[in-house]
Amino acid sequence: MPETRLSLRHFAPLAGLAWLLAAQLPAAVHAADTPEPAPAARPAADALAPARAQLAQQRYAAAVAELKKVEGTNNADWHNLMGYALRKSTPPDLEGAQRHYDTALRLNPAHKGALEYSGELALMKGDLATAEARLATLSRLCSSPCEALDDLKHAIAKYRAAGKR
């Protein structure tokens, strides 16, 4: 039986296929070995809708009650809304609001609402430096028109116009 000698040219068509498969293999292995990321602890947007509706009507105690119905302790939006409701309540709970804004910003340092509202809270406490720091952060995140940025700029201007430093 004659010996068959194979040269590289016999494998050329297979080399292209092997290269294609090898290029796809890491992605396929990675996808198969990587578990799906766990969904973030985030209440559905509509879960916060009842609280937002109460806030829109300036019913702050009702908003707090609605927020307490939602498991949102690991959610920056939830903490931002809770901080807002506590700050706007009569009488305001400034320390509670501060805790919630701080938590919102720990969870999401770029949360525009929490930056704006914590800046407004700082002004309520007479802390212009913190409000200006929040404004500087917002300025890096967005530019006018940006509701959070524009509202905090306005609040600081009003604060200064009242002769406060």
Please tell me about this protein's structure.
The protein has 165 residues and is mainly alpha-helical. Among the domains are: 61 residues; 51 residues, no CATH class. The protein is built from eight helices and no strands. α4 runs antiparallel to α5 and α6 runs parallel beside α8. The longest helix has 26 residues. The protein is globular and about 40 Å long. The N terminus is likely disordered.
Question: What is this entry, summarized?
Answer:
The protein is mostly helical. It has helices at about 10-35, 50-55, 60-70, 75-90, 95-105, 110-125, 130-140, 145-160.
Tags for this entry?
mainly alpha, 165 residues, disordered N terminus, globular
Alpha-beta content class: mainly alpha
Task: Give the integer mean of the pLDDT values.
Answer: 81
Strand fraction band? under 5%
Outline, from the CA principal axes? globular
Helix content: 55-70%
Assembly form of the protein = single chain
